[in-house]
Amino acid sequence: MNATLSLRRLDSTAAGFDADLAALIAFEANQDPSIDAAVAQIVADVRARGDAALLEYTRRFDRLNVPTVAALEITAAEMQAAYASLPIAQSDALGTAAARVRRYHELQKGRDWNFTEADGTELGQRVTPLDRVGVYVPGGKAAYPSSVLMNVIPAHVAGVREIVMVVPTPDGVRNPLVLAAAHLAGVTRAFTIGGAQAIAALAYGTQTIPAVDKICGPGNAYVAAAKRRVFGAVGIDMVAGVSEILIIADATANPDWIALDLFAQAEHDEMAQALLVTPDAEMVRRVAESAQRLIADMPRARIIAESFARRGALIRTRDLDEACAIANRVAPEHLELAVAEPDALLPHIRHAGAIFIGHYASEVLGDYCAGPNHVLPTGRTARFSSPLSVHDFEKRSSMLRISREAAQKLGPVAATLAYGEGLTAHARSAEARIDKL
């Protein structure tokens, strides 16, 4: 496909660089008012009318006409049959990816702990899984079995008892890879519904769809707006933004590999961001040359070109230390360290969703099968957020067993602080347990 690739080049020594970088990484994430208004109506309608509203929206948006919501449910047998129908290469790849993702997330499981003080007071933590979660899987323009694995497996490992998957199937077309992934990952129930209406159904429940405790999974602007709107009634994982990659490279990097890694993010979306940061001027030239040559063979060349034109850049820095400083400022979803000695840079990296270390650690392996979760913070939220994990599907309860002896020591402390806050009942509750002379 023919596409003109415009490659923005920035230099950290140039006047105005800070302003140029700020403009490049700025991304207005405010919700489109028209989308928000439409979503508000859909959510309220599903909450009020339940199944009847779901059926109407499914007919309107997915052109799927069925008499009941029960007819939209995908049975466990159908998911298992989809897995059995896959070509051997696909079933093997899916199985390998699922096993690696499961093994990684098993290591994240929380644990109970406690300690006992000299006076017999016992303090600790108890970890319990959520009861029921909902997983949204995009299904409009493409199929994402990898999203099924990454969202369902951590919940399954955490011990969630019921995992409800929703996936839109326009015109009733079901993707066997998605259903097979659901079978492998441990989905309990699945329904062919999508959009804001699916999020509302999961949040509030309908006559057929059970209400969940938390919703995770990516989606379009309507899904993101719905997740924002129902937050509080249920938990959500995050409001996902467009994909991002920042690659720190030195003279030892392979320019073709770098160009392809940049393309791999840019082809997601016209607003995706792909940045190269390097102190090596020759590497900037070679990557630009590789990109111009390789773009001709990309089926999604138009999307890649638009992504680069809007938000991409090849950035030259003074040195690798400055490259790390820029990476921390950007706080990218994906960070590749394509340098000779990546371990030397790691102590300088503070903000990144996932860090890919060394020339062979392509971000794409993280997308599909390396093991760590590919649901990552975007839009600079890696400054304060973490990847999706088993912890997102667990709750931690504090445990306090207070001995009589400890109540004598802690009671006056609590009472003094409570009186200071003007909360007399608090103070007297603590004092009531103090032995009277």
Secondary-structure topology with pairs:
Blueprint: E1 9-11, H1 17-25, H2 33-49, H3 51-62, E2 73-74, H4 76-85, H5 88-106, E3 113-116, E4 122-129, E5 132-136, H6 145-158, E6 162-166, H7 176-185, E7 189-191, H8 195-204, E8 214-216, H9 221-230, E9 235-236, E10 244-249, H10 255-266, E11 273-278, H11 281-294, H12 301-311, E12 313-316, H13 320-330, E13 334-338, H14 342-345, E14 354-357, H15 363-368, E15 394-401, H16 404-420, H17 424-431
Parallel strand pairs: 1-12, 5-6, 5-8, 6-7, 8-9, 10-11, 10-13, 11-12, 13-14
Antiparallel strand pairs: 2-7, 3-4, 4-15
* Mean pLDDT over the full residue set: 95
Helix content: 40-55%
**So, the CATH homologous superfamily of the largest domain?**
Nitrogenase molybdenum iron protein domain
- Termini separation comes to 90 Å
Low-pLDDT runs:
none
Biggest sheet strand line-up? 1-12-11-10-13-14
Strand portion, in percent?
A: 15-25%
Number of domains: 3
Number of helices: 17
Question: Please, could you describe this protein's structure?
Answer:
With 437 residues, the chain is of the alpha/beta class. It folds into 3 domains: 151 residues, 3-Layer(aba) Sandwich (Rossmann fold); 185 residues, Rossmann fold, CATH 3.40.50; 30 residues, no CATH class. The protein contains 17 helices and 15 strands. The strands form 3 sheets. Strands 1-12-11-10-13-14 form a 6-stranded parallel β-sheet, with helices on both faces. A 6-stranded mixed β-sheet has the order 2-7-6-5-8-9, sandwiched between helices. Helix 2 packs across helix 8 and helix 10 packs across helix 11.
